[in-house]
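Example record

The entry below shows one chain as it appears in the dataset: sequence first, then structure tokens.
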Amino acid sequence: MNKNNKKPFVLAVVGPTASGKTWLGVELAKIYGGEVISADSMQIYKGMDIASAKPTEAEKQGVPHHLMDFLDRGESFSAADYVQLANEKITEILSREKMPIIVGGTGLYIDSLLENVRFSEGGSDEVYRRELYDFAHEQGNEALHACLAELDPEAAEGIHPNNLVRVVRALEVCKVTGRRFSELKRESRLVESPYNSLIIGLNYENRQTLYERIDHRVDEMVKAGLVEEARQLWQESGMKTAANAIGYKELIPYFEGKAELSDCIALIKQETRNYAKRQLTWFRKNDRIEWFFLDRFNKNNEILEKCKKSIAKYLEM
């Protein structure tokens, strides 16, 4: 009997982009009577469907999906917001006696939710925050990230220079509290998680296989209307939030007549591959993830059988 059997069980499916998380989440939901909670920082926004690989109704196969396609593009959304809403959805799903299944590639969201991270660290200083954004605009994201690296090397190591929101927040917390952001983050994890969770990670032993899947998916996105969707966002709002999403920002030079479409699409593929590398770097730090290397399996039903065995074994521990 699992020692945490009194806690509600939550299943998570994580991994890099194009690894098959959506498919596996839906299949496991069908097997266990589950509902999916998205953990994708871009699928939350309305109108950003193709580049964010938001699943279609056909792909959902009738399985309820939550925290997807509900936020206007101009609205901000933090990891703390995600944890609050995801906890509410987990409670709702459990009340229906269904299994909550977290599916996505935004590691910060997943870790914060399942590790019960508290977000009370530090207050706010809007003037200083604005100064940091102005500095990044004038000097570049790398320069601002270097400031964080000098002040809090541990925090800087875990935040990509282009993740401007998190770099700014870390610096703001350091100034307001007089303490390192990384120290406060560690303290925030001292409260035990309310969930009994198993995390399944999807990846490929042959990295080239993943890259080929990424390239193919970008080609499929273009066929599905990616360029038209991005153009509409660009014309409506100059991108705003979409400018942070891979698949949109790379097309801006094409819309401005400064680059060929083929070059922009090639850049989307490269940036997506780089993003997958960053996702894997993040997830590898979590030793709780049980990794499934998909190129070891010949058929999808073999993957599902392996998952079922892992879930049964975990619950019986």
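Notes for this example: DSSP finds 14 helices and six strands in the chain. The chain has a mean pLDDT of 91.
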